[in-house]
Amino acid sequence: MKNQITVILKHRHLIWDLALKDIKVRYRSPTLGFLWAIIIPLVMVFIFKLIFSDILKMTIEECPFFIYLMTALFPWVYFSSSLNAATESILGNRDLIKKTYFPRQTIPIATVLANLINSLPSFVVMLLILAFFKTPPTFMVLWLLPIIILQTVFTIGLAFIVSSLTVITRDVKYLVEILITVWFYLVPSFYPLATVAAASGSLFKLYLLNPFVGFVILYRVTLLKGYADTLPPEVHLGGLIVWVAFVSVAAYFLGALVFQKYERQLSDFI
Fold first, then answer.
1. In this predicted structure, which of 8-12, 192-196, 221-225 has the lowest mean pLDDT?
2. How does pLDDT run across 168-200, given as a tens digit for each residue?
3. Fewest CB within a 10 Å sphere: which of 89, 114, 118, 209?
4. What domain range is 184 assigned to?
5. How many domains does the structure of the chain reveal?
6. What is each CA distance from 169 to 105, 121, 158, 177, 266, in whole angstroms?
7. Long-range own/partner contacts, residues 192-196 (CB < 8 A, 24 or more apart)
């Protein structure tokens, strides 16, 4: 742990420069530039609202369906875009790796950081939309930053794993795409959590072990007034917070161990 923190602090300027480079390259050509960071998640929200609310007539008692979708899809877009980008982050920086030595783990960290910076405007827009719909968050919004940090730690851990394994075998890229697609439907983004609790019975506790289910619940508890009161009795917020924090930190250090195992071989495979 001490070594990981030392590497990050010592090379923080490199991580920052790599993240900014990633963002500049991403928005160098598009006319709308950084606005796409807001447009893409909003379009996803509107599409899901059209399908599940307007066509299939699905309703959410806690809040407007649009708000319910937004509080899950915005964090999910940050997560999925980070993981997809991290998958080929080492390969994408092969020229830099061949030219000079630096801790290779700074690359996936910078990739996730770039996607965090890219997602921050959408989080701001989300808060503005909540205020516009007269559902402004309470003092619980102070928990938003710690939750984003935990999600970032969790995502970096997975980024370590997929970025290093992709160099060893290119098939990982496609496996990650499948994983993200399946994982999305295992998260209560567009369906009520209570429905899962009622339908799955004893399996609901297993469902709650999905770390991103925990993240979505925590985001909604933080952003939606009164949402905590609507949670199924099986959901204990204190235990959920501990579980999400544990999984996030464990994912980070497991990922760091996997990356360290393959780091010396990266130059040979790229």
1. 8-12
2. 888 899 999 999 999 999 999 988 898 898 888
3. 209
4. 2-269
5. 1
6. 18, 35, 16, 15, 11
7. 192/60, 192/61, 193/217, 193/231, 193/232, 193/235, 194/230, 194/232
